[in-house]
């Protein structure tokens, strides 16, 4: 009792009655939090930046608006439009005849995107067909034609903020698909060969949210079956929405993803409506600051047989990261996409594309490096084409296990063949053949350098080596010379970036290296590898070829993440190492950490190496490879295991970590040391994109706990302490315990996830339903699958304290400045002083009838015209004005009751300000629709109950009435509700941020109840609120109104 009395007296002592105050603990935590924010921002902007090497293409665009696609075809004709792209000077078209004679392709722009963003791809398609393909009769005969690029104009709609907008766009696209296909049936519009079938499907290309719209198209009721079978998306957040501020957006994503997952989980192809569909997701990498590239993953949606995710840095001859916008126009990238499209089309089929398996093989060829374990190799399936007759000089054949090294080519008169014998079968498993050269390898018979895989001529009856199409005689006409039957490996060539002492980046404008890699299992039918040098004169260059054992070329590491953090990783490669070394680091799999990798080549002279070291950093799911040339030191960051991502559909779910494939020349006969260290400062920047929504949710934890403390003190002492004092008390008591509990919960969740993942077999692999995958298991708290990152909870807590303090003092400053403005205006208007020396209110003079009318009008507008988010913004403005009024009265009267009201109004304003960002996106969408004259209301955003409590609380505060104290056990309800808000904001706030508004709305409902019911929740006279005297003539004590003497 004595301690409670002392505490009560301490809280009742005179204190600052405004919202100001500078407690020491709060300032220390705030400074620390702001330093963390500065470190994160600085790291994000300056450290671990992926280089970008996109060139801007040139084009001559013409957009033909398809006016015939009107309200007879779609109900969105007044909002959206459809265009056909034509390249001036290349495409043959006119106003009467738009020249449809190719394969239809439809481009879908993203959030606030323009239909003009499709011009880069469309221009390259027109130019490539006009300049190259139409002259290649072999391609024309197999069904290659031009591409008719259509592009949708969504009027720069905000699809990333609003789920209904996605559904509207998808419905419109389905209408557009039907209309586009109908154009090819019109002989007055189409110039297609009458012998070819009319198209029944359209290829979709979506940028950003346009990719989500493309996937939504196939789930809509107005979807025409089989009208889409190929989708390519660029920087599209497939796995989860970019923000979670709209309930419609979350439910739309859930419905779309569930549809795709359920379709591919069907046991039989006939029951899968998406069996014929291929989906390719292309990500820009770390340069994309709009959509986290982790979200582009298809691993939880589509099996490898129907789609995959790849990064632009992986794509051959692109080898660069791109940002969110440049992925739509990057010159090297658009060429790769267009060439892939021309390879998959086949106008001889009604679907206009090849079969699904063949399409997937083509997409892998164009978008993957070719080094992947599942890369298609054409050599085993080819027939021999070349008869190689060797010279009698036996020195042309290397010894078993010897490597071939050519320093320069063309040093012999006439062609020269170098034979590398294949290792004997049944030896050490894991052997592979690798060859690297800076020369371009041409098709057999036409190039200066050929790589042939040879075997002895057939000896069985009926087989003859003389029937081969090419005869390469190096013997000088000697009939007794040995002969070999060979296959060319030209189709399996892999291009990797060139690297020399002057190289700077993988995307440098230089001829790439040619690389071949085969496992020994692929070469079982061959006895020799023949490298044929047909240069007629000495040519600078190099070639290195060898067979290597996996025991030498593959180096697995078993270092833990903790060991990496404390001591790093150091590997010493011997001087007689293989040309290609693959270092696997399973512990390095989190996208939250960045690293530094260094290569030390001591003892190597500058000109002694044939090429400078090349490093390929790669993970297999998604397909992300980064090439580094002339390597000395590189930044290592990745898109591996990321927070809040749904689990993979396969058992080999991204658990192999990062690998480093190293090409090095051992000509200098010196060891090579590789060191890997965690980049702590660089890792801070990784938090910005992965946890940006946390910085909207976690501050609500602080605000809720502060309000909880304020009410507990107020109910106990009658003093509603200000925000700063309450925050100081929380920092010294409840907040550390709260975040300690959250940290333990984060550790428990991560541990349970890892245990479940190890014990559950993928239902996708077995086509079974006994153990369904929980795709929402990573939605809670940090969303991390690794207990190592528990420390992020208190770190975000410290940052949130700093953010709340900044917002608190910013609001205080604004309120103070507006108060000065109010006083100045009042003085100029002849401010009347009362006898008691107090000023009459300016804004609280509204009558009860006026307040009721204002509230009813606003609620009516919410129910009919405006979304409740608009009313929320109005409520925030009114609350700000109330804070100005209450603060002015508190300063002028120096009354404890006025100070209580000012502190309470200020804390409610802080709460509302942190809820405000959740409501702004939908409000932006609504405003944009008004700007484009689209007045169809949002059915889900006219719920009056979602805003009524806020309006009632704000209107009640304008009366100048302080919320009554609760001395009964009902005071625990107030405390519990604020604590529930804090817990929900921490655990679910990132994934379901939109619910924070509704939970806060429920808490505010309780505060309104307290206003209308006195102590002990007895119904008092409603005159206490509905009929008030002038504020200046009243005093408030314990929630009751008393006349001043």
From TrEMBL:
Task: Report the Gene3D superfamilies cross-referenced here.
Answer: alpha/beta hydrolase
Membrane topology designation: Multi-pass membrane protein
Q: Name one Pfam family in it.
A: PGAP1_TMD
Query: Where, by residue number, does the polypeptide cross the bilayer?
Result: 21-45, 689-708, 788-821, 842-863, 908-927, 947-964, 976-995, 1001-1019
Q: Name one GO molecular function term.
A: phosphatidylinositol deacylase activity
List the GO cellular component terms. endoplasmic reticulum membrane
Give the chief site where it resides: endoplasmic reticulum
GO biological processes: endoplasmic reticulum to Golgi vesicle-mediated transport; GPI anchor metabolic process; protein transport
Q: Which residues form the GPI inositol-deacylase transmembrane domain?
A: 694-1012
Identify the enzyme class.
Answer: hydrolase
Give the EC number(s) under which this enzyme is classified.
Answer: 3.1.-.-
Q: Where is the GPI inositol-deacylase PGAP1-like alpha/beta domain?
A: 100-343
Q: Which UniProt keywords apply?
A: Endoplasmic reticulum, Hydrolase, Membrane, Protein transport, Transmembrane, Transmembrane helix, Transport
Q: Where in the cell is it found?
A: Endoplasmic reticulum membrane
Matching entries from InterPro entries are given as: AB_hydrolase_fold, PGAP1-ab_dom-like, PGAP1/BST1, PGAP1_TMD
- Provide the function of this protein: Involved in inositol deacylation of GPI-anchored proteins which plays important roles in the quality control and ER-associated degradation of GPI-anchored proteins.
Concerning its family, UniProt says:
Belongs to the GPI inositol-deacylase family.
The protein's name in its UniProt record:
GPI inositol-deacylase
Species source reads: Trichophyton tonsurans (strain CBS 112818) (Scalp ringworm fungus)
């Amino acid at each position: 009792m004595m301690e409670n009395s002392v505490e009560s007296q301490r809280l009742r002592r005179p204190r600052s009655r405004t919202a100001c105050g500078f407690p020491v603990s709060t300032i220390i935590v705030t400074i620390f939090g702001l330093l963390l924010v500065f470190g994160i921002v600085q790291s994000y902007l300056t450290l671990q930046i992926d280089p970008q090497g996109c060139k801007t293409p040139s084009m001559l665009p013409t957009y033909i608006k398809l006016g015939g696609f009107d309200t007879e075809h779609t109900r969105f004709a007044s909002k959206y439009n459809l265009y056909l792209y034509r390249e001036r000077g290349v495409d043959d078209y006119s106003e009467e005849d738009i020249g449809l004679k190719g394969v239809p392709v439809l481009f879908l722009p993203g959030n606030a995107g323009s239909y003009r963003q499709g011009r880069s791809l469309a221009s390259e398609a027109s130019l490539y067909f006009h300049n190259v393909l139409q002259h290649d009769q072999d391609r024309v005969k197999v069904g290659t034609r031009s591409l008719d690029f259509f592009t949708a104009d969504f009027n720069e709609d905000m699809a990333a903020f609003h789920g209904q907008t996605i559904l509207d766009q998808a419905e419109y696209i389905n209408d557009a698909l039907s209309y586009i296909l109908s154009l090819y049936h019109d002989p007055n519009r189409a110039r297609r060969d009458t012998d070819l079938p009319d198209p029944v499907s359209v290829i979709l290309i979506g940028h950003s949210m346009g990719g989500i719209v493309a996937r939504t198209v196939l789930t809509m009721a107005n979807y025409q079956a089989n009208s889409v079978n190929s989708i390519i998306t660029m920087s599209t957040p497939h796995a989860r929405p970019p923000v979670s501020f709209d309930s419609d957006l979350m439910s739309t994503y859930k419905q779309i993803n569930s549809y795709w997952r359920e379709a591919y989980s069907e046991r039989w192809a006939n029951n899968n409506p998406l069996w014929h569909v291929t989906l390719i997701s292309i990500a820009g990498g770390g340069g994309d600051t709009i959509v986290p590239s982790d979200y582009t993953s298809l691993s939880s949606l589509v099996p490898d047989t129907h789609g995959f995710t790849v990064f632009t840095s992986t794509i051959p001859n692109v080898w660069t990261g791109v940002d969110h916008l440049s992925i739509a126009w990057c010159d090297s990238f658009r060429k790769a996409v267009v060439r892939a499209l021309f390879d998959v089309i086949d106008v001889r089929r009604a679907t206009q594309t090849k079969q699904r398996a063949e399409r997937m093989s083509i997409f892998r060829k164009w978008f993957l490096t070719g080094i992947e374990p599942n890369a298609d190799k054409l050599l085993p399936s080819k027939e021999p084409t070349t008869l190689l007759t060797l010279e009698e000089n036996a020195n042309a054949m290397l010894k078993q296990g010897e490597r071939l090294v050519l320093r320069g080519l063309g040093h012999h008169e006439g062609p020269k063949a170098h034979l590398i014998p294949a290792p004997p079968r049944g030896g050490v498993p894991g052997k592979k053949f690798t060859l690297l050269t800076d020369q371009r390898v041409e098709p057999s018979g036409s190039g200066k350098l050929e790589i042939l895989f040879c075997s002895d001529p057939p000896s069985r009856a009926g087989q003859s080596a003389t029937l081969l199409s090419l005869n390469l005689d190096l013997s000088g006409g000697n009939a007794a010379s040995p002969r070999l039957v060979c296959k060319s490996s030209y189709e399996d060539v892999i291009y990797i970036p060139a690297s020399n002492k002057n190289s700077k980046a993988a995307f440098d404008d230089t001829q790439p290296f040619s690389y071949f890699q085969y496992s020994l299992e692929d070469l079982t039918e061959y006895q020799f590898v023949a490298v044929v040098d047909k240069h007629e004169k000495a040519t600078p260059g190099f070639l290195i070829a060898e067979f290597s054992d996996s025991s030498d070329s593959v180096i697995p590491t078993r270092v833990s993440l903790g060991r990496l953090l404390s001591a790093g990783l150091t590997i010493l490669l011997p001087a007689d190492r293989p040309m290609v070394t693959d270092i696997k680091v399973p512990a390095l799999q989190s996208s939250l950490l960045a690293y530094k990798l260094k290569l030390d080549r001591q003892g190597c002279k500058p000109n002694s190496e044939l090429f400078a070291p090349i490093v390929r950093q790669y993970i297999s799911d998604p397909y992300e490879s980064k090439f580094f040339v002339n390597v000395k030191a590189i930044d290592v960051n990745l898109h591996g295991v990321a927070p809040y991502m749904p689990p993979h559909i396969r058992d080999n779910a991204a658990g192999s970590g990062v690998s480093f494939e190293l090409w090095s020349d051992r000509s200098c006969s010196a060891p090579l040391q590789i060191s890997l260290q965690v980049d702590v400062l660089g890792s801070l920047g990784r938090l910005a994109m992965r946890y940006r929504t946390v910085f909207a949710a976690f501050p609500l934890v602080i605000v809720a706990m502060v309000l909880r403390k304020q009410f507990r003190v107020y109910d106990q002492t009658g003093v509603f302490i200000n925000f700063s004092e309450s925050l100081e008390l929380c920092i010294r008591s409840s907040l550390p315990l709260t975040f300690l509990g959250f940290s333990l919960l984060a550790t428990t969740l991560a541990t349970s996830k890892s245990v479940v993942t190890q014990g559950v077999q993928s239902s996708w692999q077995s086509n079974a339903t006994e153990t369904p995958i929980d795709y929402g298991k990573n939605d809670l708290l940090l969303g991390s699958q690794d207990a190592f990152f528990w420390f992020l909870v208190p770190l975000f807590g410290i940052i949130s304290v700093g953010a709340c303090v900044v917002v608190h003092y910013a609001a205080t400053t604004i309120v103070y400045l507006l108060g000065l403005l109010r006083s100045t205006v009042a003085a100029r208007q002849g401010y009347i002083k009362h006898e008691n020396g107090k000023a009459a209110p300016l804004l609280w003079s509204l009558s009860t009838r006026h307040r009721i009318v204002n509230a009813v009008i606003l609620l009516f507008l919410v129910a009919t015209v405006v979304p409740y988010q608009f009313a929320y913004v109005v409520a925030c403005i009114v609350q700000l004005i109330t804070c100005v009024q209450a603060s002015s009265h508190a300063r002028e009267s120096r009354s404890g009751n006025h100070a209580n009201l000012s502190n309470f109004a200020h804390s409610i304003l802080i709460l509302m300000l942190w809820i405000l960002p959740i409501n702004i996106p939908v409000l932006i969408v609504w405003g944009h629709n008004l700007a484009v004259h689209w007045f169809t209301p949002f059915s889900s955003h006219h719920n009056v109950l979602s805003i009524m409590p806020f309006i009632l609380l704000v209107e009640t505060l304008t009366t100048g009435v302080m919320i009554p104290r609760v001395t009964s056990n009902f005071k625990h309800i107030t405390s519990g509700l604020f604590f529930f808000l804090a817990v929900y904001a921490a655990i679910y706030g990132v994934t379901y941020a939109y619910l924070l508004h509704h939970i806060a709305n429920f808490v505010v409902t309780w505060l309104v109840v307290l206003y209308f019911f006195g102590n002990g929740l007895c119904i008092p006279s409603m005159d206490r609120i509905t009929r008030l005297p002038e504020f200046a003539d009243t005093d408030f004590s314990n929630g009751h109104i008393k006349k001043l003497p």
